[in-house]
Design brief:
mainly alpha; 81 residues; 79% helix; 3 helices
C-alpha cells in the first residue's frame, strides 16, 4: 500500500483512465486540425441543404437567386439612366 492510501491497482486504473482521456483529447484535436476534412464536411452539409433528395436545386433557392439577379439588374439599369 502506498503512503497516500491508494493501492497499486487504483493507481493503475487511474493511469488507464487518464490515458483514455488523453487519447480522446488527441482525437478531438486531430479532427479540429484536419482542415481539408472539415471543409469537405461543410461543403457536403451545404449541398444537402441546397438540394432536394433527387439532387436537384431546391425551388425556393432558385427563386431567391432569380430575384437577386432581377434586383441587381434593376439597380444597374436605374444607375445607368
Amino acid at each position: 500500500m502506498s503512503t497516500n492510501g491508494t493501492t497499486p491497482e487504483q493507481i493503475e486504473a487511474d493511469i488507464e483512465r487518464q490515458r483514455d482521456e488523453l487519447a480522446a483529447t488527441v482525437s478531438q484535436l486531430q479532427a479540429k486540425l484536419d482542415v481539408k476534412a472539415r471543409a469537405q464536411d461543410k461543403a457536403a452539409e451545404l449541398q444537402d441543404r441546397a438540394t432536394t433528395a433527387s439532387g436537384k436545386p431546391r425551388p425556393e433557392l432558385v427563386a431567391a437567386a432569380a430575384a437577386v439577379v432581377v434586383l441587381l439588374g434593376v439597380l444597374v439599369w436605374r444607375r445607368a439612366r
